[in-house]
Amino acid sequence: MGTAIRKGERDKSGRDGTWKLEDAKARFSEVVRRAQSEGPQRVTVRGREAVVVMSVDELDRLLPKDAGKPAFVPFLESLGLDGLNLEREIDRGRDVAL
């Protein structure tokens, strides 16, 4: 489990907020704790940054305040369908033999 550390190397996982995927998986609780206390934690896959684990508070701070869904009527009005003909012919049904 985990990654082997060569002689003379120290395990630096997470010290700078960056984790190898296998280390992040093995120590996920610590990744979450550090995201809450120290800030976003980056996870790398094959040496390339792949994802960031961050606290909900940090995410809420970054997202726009009105990130919810727009109201339905203003949404429909914004579609620009003013010239669309929505008239229908009266449908009187059809005769069905029983």
UniProtKB/TrEMBL annotation:
Classification via Pfam families: PhdYeFM_antitox
InterPro entries in the cross-refs: Antitoxin_Phd/YefM, YefM-like_sf
Biological source species: Edaphosphingomonas haloaromaticamans
Lineage: Bacteria, Pseudomonadati, Pseudomonadota, Alphaproteobacteria, Sphingomonadales
Function, as annotated: Antitoxin component of a type II toxin-antitoxin (TA) system.
Name of protein: Antitoxin
SUPFAM superfamilies: YefM-like
Family: Belongs to the phD/YefM antitoxin family.
Record's signal peptide: none
